[in-house]
Amino acid sequence: MKQDVDILVIGAGVVGICSAYYLLQKGRRVVVVEKGEVCSGCSYGNAGLVVPSHCIPIAEPGVISQGIKWLFDPESPLTIRFRMDRDLLSWLWKFQRHCNKENVRSSIPVIRDLSLKSLQLYEELAVREGLDFGFEQRGMLTVYKRDKTLEKISEEARVLGEFGIQVELLNTTQVRELEPNVRFDIAGGVFYPHDAHFRPDRFVRTLASTVSRRGVDIRPSTEVLGMETSGGRITTVRTTRGDFSATEIVLAGGSWSPEIVKDLRLKLPIQPAKGYSITVKSPQKQPVIPLIFAEAKVVVTPMGDVLRFGGTLEFAGMDLSINRHRVEAILRAVPAYLPDMDPGKYPLVEIWRGLRPCTPDGLPLIGRSSTVHNLTIATGHGMLGLSLGPISGKLVSQLVLNEDPGFNMAQLSVERFR
Predict the structure, then answer these.
(1) End-to-end Cα, the chain, rounded Å
(2) Residue 282 per-residue DSSP state
(3) Distance between CA atoms of 60 and 152, rounded to whole angstroms?
(4) 359 Cβ partners below 8 Å, 6+ apart?
């Protein structure tokens, strides 16, 4: 028997749960379906950062040449497992076409505005809803070991400053004054004072519990198997727990989104990029500000009673296996920058991996489908899913209700790669 619902949200990660929250705020009745558990995908084990500082898209000049150098290094920060796959080859072709200054300069204000608005919404959720998810706005500190890295960082700082992002270049003494809890072996650093961090799984699950108490029906272990359409609308969503008929459907399925809409003949140019994190019990001395190791591309985030190390981009399809070489590379990077810290000596909480949904230009796909009239898509956030979760959910609610989102949505169009 088909279940009739008002709004069906597919995906219970940060974007899906935030969409449910803002749709509920507007008086809509929402059902959320999720193939696993709430926050069981990429929203769970990421670095927990809200980073207006990261508004330079991954598709930038130099990425291709650097990626080729790293190609045969099993421990490199970025790798592509080449395979004769039409979707991958098409994605790589589009990606290399966007690795230019024009894409960077047009994308920065979009990511900046979305990130700053999302930061504001996180603060509102912490205060208005009383959500306890460890939210702290202490900024973020990138540290580097080589003077050559300073050239690239200084250029990035100049560009970010041009777009109104506050950046502070620091020498080693200033880094130690800013973060006196740990000893560094570095040449200098860059501080981004507007950035924030928190425990991502705690945020998503706490917000999910909040909306569930207020009437949102969350269905875990409910996997979408296919869709049927008639007259340009989705009439049936088939799942492992029965069929649904919905007035409006929101797709927030992350890296699984292209497969979910295959029956609709929609091509979403998304490639999954596997990232890893290692979470340990907090040592006696640890940083209080999130750190990024510039050359190693490793993030260190303090999260209350645990400390998380994360990194790497591994384009290997929908492969969720754990590559021990990559885990070990992340762990080895820590004492290279923080000589007194050896993650192997701290009690291990968890080794995690997740698939980030990446688009060829580094911007998410957020918008209404022009061919399937009751479908709104919000996916393709890459490494910025947590950063952009609340604003993505709010935009979804405005799009579903045909309200003016207050943003120029053209660069986020779900059909911009046609």
Answers:
(1) 37
(2) P
(3) 12
(4) 269, 270, 365, 380, 382, 417
More confident residue, 71 or 88: 88
**Residues 182-191: tens digit of each pLDDT:** 999 999 999 9
CB-based burial label for 44 (10 Å; 0-12, 13-18, 19+): buried
Contact, 347 vs 195, CB < 8 A? no
Q: What is the DSSP string of 287-345?
A: -SS-EEETTTTEEEEEETTEEEEEEEEEE-SS-----HHHHHHHHHHHHHHSTT--GGG
Residue 313 binned pLDDT confidence (cut-offs 50, 70, 90): confident
Q: Quick check: helix, strand or coil at residue 245?
A: strand
Task: Return mean pLDDT, the chain.
Answer: 94
pTM of the model: 0.96
Please report, to the nearest 10 degrees, the dihedral formed by the alpha carbons of residues 276, 48, 143, 53 taken in order.
120
Strand-pair partners of 379: 365
SS3 helix, strand, coil % of the chain, rounded to 5?
35, 25, 40
Both tokens of 56, joined, read 């330079």
The tens digit of pLDDT for each residue in 20-56 reads 999 999 999 999 999 999 999 999 999 999 999 999 9
